[in-house]
Structures are given as C-alpha cells and as structure tokens.
Design goal:
There is one protein chain. By secondary structure, this protein is α/β, with parallel strands linked by helices. It folds into 2 domains: 115 residues, Rossmann fold, CATH 3.40.50; 191 residues, 3-Layer(aba) Sandwich (Rossmann fold). Helix 2 links the parallel strand 4 and strand 5. Bound molecules: nicotinamide-adenine-dinucleotide. The site of nicotinamide-adenine-dinucleotide has 24 residues, from helix 5 and helix 6.
C-alpha cells in the first residue's frame, strides 16, 4: 500500500503506528482533520485479513468521523484507533498498552468503545489514559441518544415528504431490534405509528414486539414491506443493487453505519424517488451525547438530549441544499460539513499571532 498517496487522497494529517513488545499490541491511529478540535473517534478491534485492511479501515473511519463531528456541530476533528490483533486474544496488558499510546498523544485524540471492545475493556484502558469518552460515570451507553437522534430524523423526513412530521398512522419498518431499533420502535408506537420489526436473532425481535406492539417479520422479508419509512438499524452496506429494487418505502432513515454499499447508491435512491437521510447525520446522536462531557459542569443528560433532538432540523437543511443544488443528500451533507470546516479554518488563519 502506498501510504502517503492514500493519506493525500483524502487529506489525512497523521497516521501513527504503535507496537508494544510485551503484549504484542499492533495499533494504528489515524487523524484525518483537526481543524475543529482534537480528533474524536472510537477504538476498534477487528480480525482484519491484512495489515493494509487495518490501515485502510483506520483511514476510512477517521475521515468519516471528521464529517460526522463537523455536521453534528461539535468542536472535534476526526480520528480512529484500530487494533490489528485477534479480538479473542485481547489481554489487559494489551489494553493498558493501547491506553498508554493514546495518553502520549497528550489530548490530540479522544477515544472510546467501538466494535470489538466492551465497556469493561475501556475501564482497563482508563488505568493508563485520561483521554477516554463514554465511560459509565460520564455519558455512558450512547444507544438511547442514538435512538432519539434517529427518531428526530424520521420526523424530519416525514415532514419533508408529507408536510407533517407526525408519525401517527405512518408505517415504519425497522431492520434490527437491538439497543437502537427497540428504543426507536417504542417511541414510534407511542406516537401511534405502525411498526414492523425484524432481527436475525428472532428472540430480540419477539421481545421488542411484545414490549411495544410492533409486528415481527422474518429478516429476509424486511426489504419488501410496503411502508413509509425503511429504517436500517442493524448492519452496514445493506443499500445495494440487490436490495434497492425491493424497497417500497418513500424514505430510508436509520441508525446503521455505512448503509450505502457505494456512494452511487444514494443517486440510485434519488432516481427511485426515495428520500435518503445520510446515516452519519441520523446516528449522530451518540456523538452529540458524548461531546456534552466537555461542556461546563460536565455531562448533563437533559442538555445533551435536547441537542440530540435537534438533529432533525439539521437534516431538513440538508434536504433543502440537496434540492437547491440538484445533488444526492449525502453529497449535500458533505458539502455543508466541508463549508463549516473551511469557515473555521479561515477564521483561524485570521487569528495567527504576529512575531516580535
Ligand atoms: P445492536 O448490536 O444492539 O443491535 C443490532 C441488531 O441487529 C442485533 O440484534 C443483530 O442481531 C441485528 N442484525 C444484524 N444483522 C441483521 C440483519 N441482516 N437483519 C436483521 N437484523 C440483523 O446495535 P445497536 O446499538 O442497536 O446499533 C444499531 C446500528 O446503529 C449499528 O449499525 C450501529 O453501528 C449503529 N449505531 C449505534 C449507535 C449506538 O449508540 N448504539 C450509535 C451510532 C450508530
């Protein structure tokens, strides 16, 4: 892999390779853009097929965090830590080493739990670094905030398409009855919406249905449900040429990361007359909630949730820009984030102190 070319392609600032000889830790830390503030992004531990795959993931995910954080309106840049060791072989020594490597960056990045790490793992890391977010005594589990942001986004989508954001009488099909999907179902049913839900783990879908009154369908049938909103809250890459032709919804709006198999899928959805709410905006509730840890007086759930509930309004601005410029919603969202970063960079240039 030509690392500098890969960094230059998307304007990454730093790629840091960390190795600990005692535990065998191999960790890549990617910093994409720190115009808005220190890098903020989770730490992932995955069984990558190769070193290149791990590096590519760190580059891709850190860039995604720049956009997500910028769009969420928080003063953080984009970074990501990727551990290139088998998650099954994770040890306390390895986690302590990972924490130490975060610590020596002195606050250039903040990180927390992501795929392959548990809250308990983060507590082990906390013995060697201060630069952790989302710990239980601070903002804690972000899934309720992610569900609220998704709910606010669905309301905005309904507003844009039907002229009213009220979910009452609308039909929403939710893919995934996990932490986010179940909470979302609860909110929508309480509003009087009709909710269909599925989960590969049947018992989870059943539990969500029993609690909320949603209707369960087999997972493979969720794309075919005739509904107003299809809400992916399970896995990424589910909007692909195979699934797009099956969708009967007017709106796609869910919390799952990286829903589009390729960016062109957003154009295909647009051509089909389906409104696509970019995932990195819809699921920004988690990060907005975490950023509240840095506000005066420390984390306050009520203040954080008030901000999360505003995600829908930001989404409406994206839809307006997409229409005005004749582009897909993901392109409009990226333009808004880029404009924000450029404006802040310009402001910072104006404040460069003179020598002497
Ligand atoms: P979760 O692991 O609690 O739930 C996901 C559920 O999806 C699981 O029950 C799993 O069995 C199910 N699933 C997986 N593949 C499926 C398929 N093909 N069909 C049907 N069900 C399937 O995860 P979560 O916390 O609810 O998060 C849901 C999504 O939102 C994930 O993509 C996650 O990355 C994203 N997200 C979550 C948060 C958060 O704070 N929890 C924040 C931002 C983004």
């Amino acid at each position: 892999m030509d690392i500098f070319r890969a960094m230059a392609e998307h304007g990454h600032e730093q790629l840091i390779f960390n190795y600990d000889k005692t535990s065998g830790l191999r960790m890549v830390i990617a910093l994409h853009d720190t115009t808005l503030g220190p890098g903020l992004g989770g730490m992932r531990n995955w069984r990558y097929g190769s070193e290149d795959e791990a590096i590519e993931d760190a580059l891709r995910l850190s860039r995604g965090m720049t956009y997500k954080n910028a769009f969420a309106g928080i003063d953080f840049g984009g970074s990501k830590c990727v551990i290139y060791n088998d998650p099954e072989e994770k040890t306390d020594l390895l986690l302590r080493a990972a924490g130490r490597f975060v610590e020596i960056l002195g606050g250039r990045i903040y990180t927390g739990e992501d795929v392959g790490l548990t809250p308990a793992d983060v507590e082990v890391m906390a013995r060697t670094t201060r630069y952790l977010v989302g710990r239980p005594h601070k903002s804690g589990d972000p899934s309720k905030a992610a569900a609220l942001g998704t709910y606010s986004s669905i309301r905005a989508c309904l507003q844009h398409v039907y002229g009213s954001g009220d979910p009452k009488g609308r039909h929403i099909a939710i893919q995934g009855a996990g932490n986010v999907g179940s909470d979302l179902a609860r909110r929508l049913v309480a509003d009087g919406a009709e909710v269909t839900i599925c989960d590969l783990r049947g018992e989870r879908a059943k539990a969500a249905a029993e609690e909320t009154g949603a209707v369960v369908v087999p997972s493979e049938e969720i794309y075919d449900v005739a509904c107003d909103v299809f809400s992916p809250c399970a896995l990424g890459l589910i909007l692909n040429p195979q699934t797009l032709g099956r969708l009967k919804a007017k709106i796609v709006c869910g919390s799952a990361n990286n829903q589009l198999a390729t960016p062109e899928m957003a154009d295909a959805l647009r051509a089909q007359g389906i409104l696509y709410a970019p995932d990195f905006i819809v699921n920004g509730g988690g990060i907005v909630n975490i950023a509240d840890e840095f506000e005066d007086g420390g984390y306050q759930r009520e203040r954080a949730f008030q901000r999360v509930a505003q995600i829908g309004e930001r989404l409406l601005a994206v839809f307006r820009r997409a229409e005005a410029e004749g582009v897909a919603t993901n392109v409009a969202a990226e333009r808004i984030a880029e404009d924000h970063i450029a404006a802040v960079a310009q402001q910072q240039r104006n404040f460069v102190p003179r020598r002497g």
